[in-house]
Amino acid sequence: MLLTFLLGEVSHETCSTFYLIRHAEKVRVDKSENNPALNEKGILRAQNWKNYFLDKEISKIYSTDYKRTIRTAQPLAINNNIETIIYSTSDFKFDDFIKSNIGENTLVVGHSNTIPDFVNELINEEYYTQIDDLNNSNLYVVSICDSKITHKLIKVD
pLDDT grade, residue 2 (50/70/90)? Predict the structure, then answer.
């Protein structure tokens, strides 16, 4: 009791951190192919993402159901022994997603035209625009601590 009094109020703040990335570089040989795999540079970037996230204590990984997104998440998922959760942007419920990830460090892998919108939904603001089609290095970090939301964009090459 005395120790609590001397240290002041004990914080019961619960924080969730969301890391959102676009898939790594894809094979661009056939423009009509809507589900291409990763190219060599993309395979390397997926490994680099794994290395980047090793100390982030990622406990959940979400990916759309495409070869390029699943394979971007795969090295970290295998390393951390995490099953990748497949999601669809067409029927996604953001409130449920936030509630189901309270206190977690979560990675979300998507696309140039979905990740910025995903981030905007998390932060309740139209802040980020679509990612250039040749940019695979954006990392969006959203932290939600009780009712306080912070966000930032980092370039990771």
Answer: very low
Chain CA centroid to CA 89, Å? 14
Domain assignments of the chain as residue spans, ordered by start: 13-155
Chain CA centroid to CA 4, Å? 37
- The model's pLDDT over 98-129, given as tens digits with 9 standing for 90+, comes to 999 999 999 999 999 999 999 999 999 999 99
CB atoms within 10 A of CB 10: 6
The 10 Å CB-count burial string (b at 16+, else e) for 121-135 is bbbeeeebeebeeee
Provide, rounded to the nearest whole percent, the portion of the chain with pLDDT above 70.
92
Quote the CA–CA distance of 147 and 81 in Å, as a whole number: 31
Whole-model pTM?
Answer: 0.91
- For the segment(s) 13-155, the CATH number from 3.40.50.1240, 1.20.1250.20, 3.10.290.10, 3.40.190.150 is 3.40.50.1240
- DSSP three-state, residue 51: helix
